[in-house]
Write a structure and sequence with these properties.
The structure holds two protein chains of two kinds. By secondary structure, chain A is an alpha/beta fold. Helix content of chain A is about 35%, strand content about 20%. Chain B has a domain of about 170 residues: 3-Layer(aba) Sandwich (Rossmann fold), CATH 3.40.50. The termini of chain B are far apart. Classes of the chains: A alpha/beta, B alpha/beta.
Chain lengths: ~325, ~325
C-alpha cells in the first residue's frame, strides 16, 4: 500500500524487535521522510536504516515510556510480554502495566494517533466467527481466561483515553488472530502452535507428538497482512474504533500440520495426538466485515503461501 | 489453633471495622497493614507497615497468613482524579495482581476482595449478581472504577482456579458507619449529610439537585458479619456475592431521616442549579442468603442512630476539646 500519508511524521514502534515490529520496520526503512523510533528491551533482530533509531527501554517503567514517546506523532504499541509456560499470570500483568504506562505517557505527550495491537484471544471460544460486538458474550476459554480478560480490560482503557477524557487521544484497537511469519517467535516456551509446529517439522522431529486432539480451530494470519491493516488504520481512522483482523479461514491443528508436512516435504512423519493433555480453546474465529468496510482490508496471503515463506526463512536462518 | 488473619488497608473505613471486630472475636490473630495513615493503636492488632504496590512489601506482609482480607485501595491518583481520571485506573489492578499472585505462590488458603456495585445499571428491580451486562454502557463517572473492579473479580476467579486459594469477591452497596470519612471534602453522601446536619449552624442545610437519586445503604457491621460468614461457610472455590440492604432510599429521604433522628430543627433546601440524576440501584442478596445464611440485621434508622452516637462521641467531642 501507499504510505505517503506518513511523510514527515514521527512514529514510535514498541516491541520493535518482535515479529510485528520487524516487518513494520522493513516497510518503513524504504521511507527516508519518516522518522522512526524503535524500542528494544532485551532481545531481537534489527533493521538497519538511516531513518530508524533504536532505543533501549523497559516499558514497565513510567520514565522510560515518557522518554521514548516524547515528540512522537503516532504510536504503534506492539510490546507485550508473553510466557506460555509460567501460568501464574505474571507476564499478562506486566503487559497490562506497560500498556497503562505507555498510554498515559502518550496522552501527556500529545500523541496524535495511538494504535494498540490487541488480540482475538479476548473472544469466547466459538465455532461461529465473532464480530467486534460479540466479545462479552461469554468468558474467554479457560485456557486463556486471564489473558483474555486482560485484553478486554486494556481495550476498555483505550476506550477511556479515546472517548472519556476531557482532552481525548485517538486510539485504534486491532484484534488480530494468530500472527505468523519470518522473524516470528520460534521459541517453544513462548511461541504459538503454528510456529512451534513449523520448527518441529523443519527439525524433522519424528514421531511428532501433538498435545490435544488436533481438532481445535484457529484463524492464522500472515504478518504482512497485519502490517497492512496497521497502516490502513493509521491512515483512515480518526476516532476510537475496534477491528478484527484475520484471514477469515478456519484451520484445525490437524489440517495445519498436514499442510506444513506437505510444504516441507516430510511425508514419512509419524503423528501422534495426545488427547489427555490440557485442551486449548476449541475455536477462536473472527468476522472481518468491519475492517473490510472501513479500512478496505482483506488478507492477501494464503496459509500455504505464508507457510512457504516462513519455512524457507527458518531453513535459511539455520534454526 | 488461632488463624492468622491479615487485613490489607486496616486504617481505612471498612478495614478498621473489620480489624476491630476480628480482634474481639474468638479464633483469630489479627494483623493489619498501614501505609500513609498512622497505624491503629490496639494491642490486639499487629500493625505492619507495607506499600502494597511493592512486591517485597506484599510478600513480607502475607507470609504465613491463613486469611487475607483485601480492603486497601491505592491513593496515588487523588490529584488527577477530576482532570485525568484514567491515569491511575490501573494502579489498583496492578496492586491487587501483586497481592493475589503472592497469595497464589505462598498458598494462602483464603482471600476476600471488596468489589463494588457501580458496574450495575440503574434500575427499578433488585440487581442479581448475573445482571451485570458487560455490553451496556457504564455510567460515565464510574467507567474506570467499574471496569477495574470487574477485571479484579475476574483475577480472583482465575487465581481460584489455578491454585489452592479460595476466593470471595463482594459487591457491596454504599456502606456507612463509624470510621467512615466525615469531612465534607472527601466524604460520600451519607458522611456528608451526617456532618452537615450535626454541624448546621444557621438552621438549614442545602442538598445538591433534587435529591431523587436513590441508594442502597448498608451499615458496616452487616458487611463485617458477611465476611465472617463467608470465611466460615463458603463452599465454592470462587464466590461472588451481592451484599446490601436490598432496598433503595432517595437522598432526599435520607436527609429527612437524619434530620429527624438528630432531633434538631433544620430546614432542607434543594439547590436545583446543581446537576441531579434520577438513578437508583438496590441489590438482590438472595445468593448470600441461600449459600451463607446472611441477611442484614441493622435497619436504616438503627444504623443512623448508631452512627450518630459514634459521631457525637468521636468527632464532635474531639472538636469541642480542640476548641
Amino acid at each position: 500500500m501507499n504510505l505517503n500519508f506518513l511523510k514527515g511524521k514521527k512514529i514510535l514502534i514498541t516491541g520493535a524487535t518482535g515479529l510485528m515490529g520487524t516487518h513494520t520496520l522493513l516497510r518503513l526503512k524504504e521511507l527516508p521522510d519518516v522518522f522512526v523510533r524503535a524500542t528494544v528491551h532485551n532481545r531481537g533482530s534489527f533493521v538497519g536504516a538511516s531513518n530508524i533509531a533504536y532505543v533501549k527501554a523497559d516499558l514497565t517503567q513510567a520514565d522510560d515510556c515518557e522518554r521514548v514517546v516524547e515528540g512522537m506523532d503516532y504510536v504503534l504499541m506492539f510490546a507485550a510480554k508473553i510466557d506460555r509456560q509460567n501460568l501464574s499470570g505474571d507476564s499478562t500483568l506486566q503487559t497490562l502495566d506497560m500498556n497503562a504506562k505507555m498510554m498515559k505517557a502518550a496522552h501527556n505527550a500529545g500523541v496524535k494517533k495511538y494504535l494498540w495491537l490487541s488480540s482475538a484471544t479476548g473472544y469466547p471460544s466459538s465455532s461461529v466467527p465473532m464480530a467486534e460486538d460479540d466479545m462479552f458474550r461469554d468468558d474467554p476459554h479457560e485456557s486463556n481466561f486471564l489473558l483474555g480478560w486482560t485484553v478486554r480490560f486494556i481495550e476498555k482503557l483505550c476506550e477511556a483515553y479515546a472517548l472519556k477524557m476531557r482532552k481525548p487521544m485517538p486510539v485504534i484497537v486491532l484484534r488480530p488472530t494468530a500472527i505468523y511469519g519470518p522473524w516470528g517467535d520460534f521459541d517453544y516456551a513462548t511461541s504459538h502452535v503454528l510456529s512451534a509446529l513449523v520448527r518441529r517439522v523443519v527439525a524433522r522431529e519424528n514421531p511428532l507428538e501433538i498435545w490435544g486432539t488436533g481438532d481445535s480451530c484457529r484463524d492464522f494470519i500472515y504478518v504482512e497482512d497485519v502490517v497492512d491493516a496497521c497502516f490502513l488504520a493509521l491512515e483512515r481512522v480518526e476516532r476510537y474504533d475496534v477491528f478484527n483482523i484475520g484471514s477469515e479461514r478456519a484451520n484445525s491443528v490437524k489440517e495445519l500440520l498436514s499442510l506444513i508436512l506437505e510444504i516441507d516435504n516430510f511425508p514419512d512423519a509419524k503423528v501422534v495426538f495426545d488427547g489427555s493433555k490440557p485442551a486449548k480453546a476449541p475455536a477462536i474465529l473472527v468476522n472481518c466485515r468491519h475492517a473490510k468496510d472501513v479500512l478496505g482490508f482483506e488478507a492477501k496471503i494464503s496459509l500455504a503461501q505464508g507457510l512457504k515463506k516462513t519455512i524457507i526463512w527458518l531453513r535459511n536462518t539455520g534454526s | 489453633m488461632r488463624k492468622k488473619l491479615l487485613i490489607c488497608g486496616a486504617t481505612g473505613f471498612i478495614g478498621r471495622n473489620l480489624a476491630e471486630h476480628f480482634a474481639q472475636a474468638e479464633g483469630f490473630e489479627v494483623y493489619g497493614t498501614y501505609f500513609k495513615s498512622p497505624p491503629l493503636e490496639n494491642n490486639k492488632i499487629k500493625m505492619i507497615y507495607a506499600d502494597l504496590t511493592n512486591r517485597n512489601d506484599v510478600e513480607r506482609a502475607i507470609e504465613g497468613m491463613d486469611v487475607l482480607i483485601q480492603a486497601a485501595a491505592t491513593t496515588s491518583g487523588a490529584k488527577d482524579i477530576v482532570s485525568k481520571p484514567y491515569y491511575h485506573v490501573t494502579d489498583n489492578a496492578v496492586m491487587n495482581s501483586l497481592i493475589f499472585r503472592a497469595a497464589f505462590e505462598r498458598k494462602v488458603p483464603r482471600v476476600i476482595f471488596f468489589s463494588c456495585t457501580v458496574m450495575y445499571q440503574s434500575g427499578e428491580v433488585a440487581m442479581r449478581e448475573c445482571d451485570f451486562d458487560a455490553n451496556a454502557e457504564m455510567y460515565p463517572n464510574y467507567f474506570g472504577v467499574g471496569w477495574t473492579k470487574v477485571y479484579i473479580e475476574k483475577m480472583c476467579e482465575f487465581y481460584s482456579r489455578i491454585g489452592p486459594t479460595q476466593y470471595t469477591a463482594i459487591r457491596h452497596s454504599n456502606i456507612y458507619g463509624p470510621w467512615d470519612k466525615y469531612d465534607l471534602e472527601k466524604s460520600h453522601v451519607f458522611g456528608a449529610t451526617m456532618t452537615k446536619v450535626l454541624t448546621a449552624k444557621d438552621g438549614r442545610i442545602v442538598v445538591w439537585g433534587t435529591g431523587e437519586e436513590e441508594r442502597d445503604l448498608l451499615y458496616v457491621s452487616d458487611l463485617v458479619h458477611f465476611v465472617e460468614l463467608a470465611i466460615e461457610r463458603q463452599k465454592t472455590k470462587f464466590g461472588l456475592y451481592n451484599v446490601g440492604l436490598g432496598r433503595a432510599i432517595s437522598v432526599a429521604e435520607l436527609v429527612k431521616k437524619i434530620v429527624v433522628i438528630s432531633g434538631k430543627c433544620i430546614a432542607i433546601e434543594y439547590d436545583l442549579s446543581k446537576p441531579s440524576l434520577k438513578t437508583g440501584l438496590f441489590l438482590d442478596t438472595a445468593k448470600a442468603a441461600d449459600e451463607l445464611g446472611w441477611a442484614p440485621k441493622v435497619g436504616l434508622d438503627e444504623g443512623i442512630r448508631k452512627t450518630m452516637d459514634w459521631y457525637n462521641t468521636h468527632i464532635l467531642s474531639t472538636r469541642r476539646l480542640l476548641n
